[in-house]
Write a structure and sequence with these properties.
The protein is built from seven helices and 15 strands. By secondary structure, the chain is α+β, with helices and mostly antiparallel strands. The protein is globular, with a radius of gyration of 17 Å. The strands form four sheets. A seven-stranded mixed sheet has the order 1-10-5-12-2-14-15. The protein has one domain: Sandwich (Jelly Rolls). It binds 2-oxoglutaric acid. 2-oxoglutaric acid binds next to strand 5, strand 11 and strand 12.
Length: 269
């Protein structure tokens, strides 16, 4: 019996590689969290879009969101009760922003094995619609790495695009969400997004979750937060639980990750 997902969402994830919408925050709570992030920008002069890697370790409310019951119940319905969070970050598009994300598989950035066993969650803090650059997904499970080109592309939200070859955009599903709703996609599923052509911003908070048997293949140890259950395999160093925003132990863990396994996120900061 699933904890939060419907049977058809579970079938969609199994057969097509994604599921949505999953309500994880009320509209009010999503807007309040966004207001907190805005005040964080004003207070610190830092912008969360420049903090990819493990933002959930830096801002305590994001850690609480990533380990909230609704998020973890959905993840558990898909990958089981032992849950690690490996990375997180914002995909932030201001109004009329040219930022986009090329068609890619998350696993070409992460190098996890088996590729199809981990997943990404994407929580909308604003509405996310076709006109403001919603996530688009090519339906179909992809448990192997497809051919891609690694190229710097202007306005790409990540440092390099790892653009999958031969994608037919006409087959994409536009994952439209209201504030507080979440989508989930498999680590090998092809997805991307277009620029924001609207007068509204579009903000999503994304995390990568994996069961403990999924192992890193990119060399060196990775670290992860144990969010639920037991770390049955010990393949990851344990990230600290942040006590406060910018907890020094968490900052140190992120610096280690960015100088090793997550170096690709050392981007535009
Ligand atoms: O939000 C976007 O524009 C892209 C998101 C994405 O690539 C992801 O969550 O893996």
């Amino acid at each position: 019996m699933p904890k939060i997902l419907t049977e058809s969402q579970i079938a969609s994830y199994r057969d097509l590689g994604f599921a949505y919408p999953v309500p994880v925050l009320s509209d009010h709570a999503a807007r309040a969290l966004l207001a907190e992030i805005d005040s964080f920008h004003a207070r610190t002069g830092k912008h969360v879009r420049d903090l990819r890697g493990k933002v959930h370790l830096l801002i305590k409310s994001l850690y609480e969101l990533a380990r909230s019951q609704a998020v973890l119940d959905a993840v558990e319905d898909l990958i089981g009760p032992d849950i690690l969070c490996i990375e997180s970050g914002f995909f932030w598009k201001p109004a009329r922003d040219n930022g986009f994300v090329a068609w890619h598989q998350d696993n070409t950035y992460l190098g996890l094995e088996p590729a199809g066993a981990a997943l990404g969650t994407w929580i909308a803090l604003t509405d996310s619609k076709r006109d403001n650059g919603a996530l688009k997904i090519i339906p179909g499970r992809h448990d192997r790495t497809l051919d891609f080109d690694m190229i710097p592309e202007e306005n790409h939200l990540l440092r390099f695009s790892r653009r999958v070859r031969g994608v037919d955009p006409a087959t994409a599903v536009c994952v439209e969400l209201e504030p507080g709703q979440m989508s989930v996609h498999g680590n090998g599923v092809v997805h991307g997004s277009e620029p924001n052509r609207s007068d509204r911003r579009r903000v999503g908070f994304a995390c990568i979750f994996a069961p403990p048997h999924v192992h890193p293949t990119k060399g060196g140890r990775m670290s992860a937060s144990l969010m639920r259950g037991t770390d049955t395999h010990g393949l990851y160093d344990r990230d600290p639980v942040p006590e406060c925003d910018f907890d020094p132990a968490a900052v140190a863990a992120i610096e280690r990750a960015l100088s090793g396994s997550l170096a690709l996120y050392k981007t535009k900061a």
